[in-house]
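pinging the channel bc i need a second pair of eyes. not urgent but kinda urgent?? the chain im working w is below, pasted from the shared doc
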Amino acid sequence: MTEQMNENNQFELYFEIHSLLRDLIRNIWVYFLAALIGCMGYYVYYSTTRQPIYKSSAYVCVNASTNSTASIRASKTMTQIFGNIFRQNLSKKLVAEHLGNDEFDGTVSVSVEPETNFMTVTVRSSTRENSFNQLKTLLEIYPQITDNIFSSAVVTVIKPPSMAGAAENLMGRRMIALSGLAGAFLAVAITVFLSLIRPTVKDEQSFKKMIKSKLIGTIPHEDKFRGFSLSRLLGRGRNKQKQKQKQGLLIAGNNKVHLAFAESIRKIAANVEYNIKKDGSCRTIAVTSVYANEGKTTSVANLAIALAERGNRVYLIDMDFKKPSIHLIFDLLRPEENSFVTDENTTIADFRFYGYSGLPLHIGVYEDAINRQRHKSGENKKARLSELISEVGGKADFILIDMAPMSVDSTTTDIISVSDQTILLTRTDSSYGAAINDAIKNIKDVGGNFAGCILNDVFGGLQMLGESDKTENAYALASDDKKFADYRKDSDRKVKNAADNIKESGEN
């Protein structure tokens, strides 16, 4: 459930289960910590505020002096009266005077067995000595009061008082456990509340309500972690694992990615191709994001592959000088060992280009990235990009530029200003709606031609058994006009015919 501000300045709530579950899972350690704090808080409170209570009890019997049926009934009545006498303030005062104290320290309680003349007398006090001495004295001085009422009554002590051991009100495990559960529950409630009010883009519906931009397409969530790996569990070889995970998300010749993931990339490519050819002059497309780790590089790599699969000559250039990653995704550190990348390469404006086997795709990376050296600065980006465009412009149908995130590198505006179009990629539940709108505004303010947004890592809706998928098609959201549908059918037909011609020429 996202909290958003609509045009009437009223908050509108929207529920997204995957976002909420991610927040709950990510903060499991917080719940354990909150439970520990709850237990410790109860312990500190109990230790500083509690007064230890010790009790001493005696089991007595009240009898009349005569032994008859009438005396038995009288004994029951006298037992009730004696219980009231033991609880009276006068009895407590006499005990305190007898012990030489100013007042009685504690309380007296009496429990009479039903329909009998037996009762339990209990004295509770702050010390075990006081509880024992006060009860013992009470049983000794009671005749001073009762002889004036029942001179014939006899109180027999069946079980004499004993010195108390541990305090009666010790800290209970049950209360400690309840305090821990209360702390964990409070932490869960705070997590849910913060998740609900966080104004991030969580799915297509929230994008439409929060972002003032066209949605080119959405990319569904694709799990990068396949199978169990002990090294991944132990956190070893993290860089190598990350490289393999990114390579595993490439759609070219990869039967491990889901069909929905690969098809969404190809639909976005068809959408981009249609808009580019509709304009007629926009060839250079810069792809950026608001923050890091939004899946920008992987997405632009797949977009380049999808455009090349459609028969376009594509140049993919890595101009993310803060954290270049294209060479990791295509494994360009050792191109001679990679079966997908050809050995042939060219160098233009300090960029080395590699051909992608079987596709009209050329991948350009800065040479320092190949040598595992980070480019020190991004100065003269505009001049370098202009030189690249002039060199490859006549050879390419599309030039895709992978830029650094806008929040990381302020000089990305140089690339945006010389690019024909700029696409902003955002990951669900990663960027705030206001930050995305600010980024769009900055692109337009520097003279960039903003094409739209791509929403990455979108989870599908939860479905009941046998229920069809009712989620809205992201492709239809991006462009649902009839012209685009006809264009895509015609383009797919041309790609199929070209593939058939290549196959026939090979057989001949």
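so The longest helix spans residues 482-507. and The CA atoms of residues 417 and 447 lie 6 Å apart. — does that match what u expected or am i reading it wrong
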